[in-house]
Specification:
Length: 144
């Protein structure tokens, strides 16, 4: 199984801050990639994104599943910021044994997947973290 990942974290033209952050976590039987996008180009958006990424990382290291991680991070962000802060979260869980990738999306960031058999874009509507009471991430599994 070979997986190639490309990440670009670039502030918008004229913006001092970028609200994107990421973390790669090695875990038993695979790895997990966490991407978050705090909405806006401010220091607060950057801080929110980093908090979301680090909180998700700690939950993954505790052994939580991707969808449980997204829901837990959302609930904490929702309560902590009183529904005033939005952040997109995408979690890729790679399982080396089954040679599959589980993708969980909360937000509008699309995911592009290319394999030898097909190409697809996961861009269905998915609720952003932090803004509404109940959030369920869009989940999909890609077999290698």
């Amino acid at each position: 199984m070979e997986i190639k990942i490309g990440i670009a974290s670039i502030a918008k033209s004229g913006a001092e801050y970028c609200g994107d952050s990421h973390s790669l976590v090695e875990r038993r039987g695979g790895m997990t990639l966490i991407l978050s996008d705090g909405h806006g180009n401010t220091a607060a958006a950057q801080q929110t994104s980093r908090w979301v990424t680090q909180r998700a990382r700690s939950l993954v290291l505790e052994g939580k599943e991707n969808d449980a991680v997204a829901r837990a991070v959302h609930e904490e962000l929702y309560e902590m910021k009183d529904r005033k802060v939005a952040c997109a979260l995408t979690i890729f869980g790679v399982d080396a044994e089954s040679e599959s990738v589980a993708i969980g999306r909360s937000g509008q960031t699309p995911v592009y997947v290319w394999t030898e058999e097909y190409e697809t874009i996961y861009d269905d509507e998915a609720t952003t973290l932090g803004m509404s009471r109940n959030v369920n991430p869009q989940n999909c599994i890609v077999a290698a």
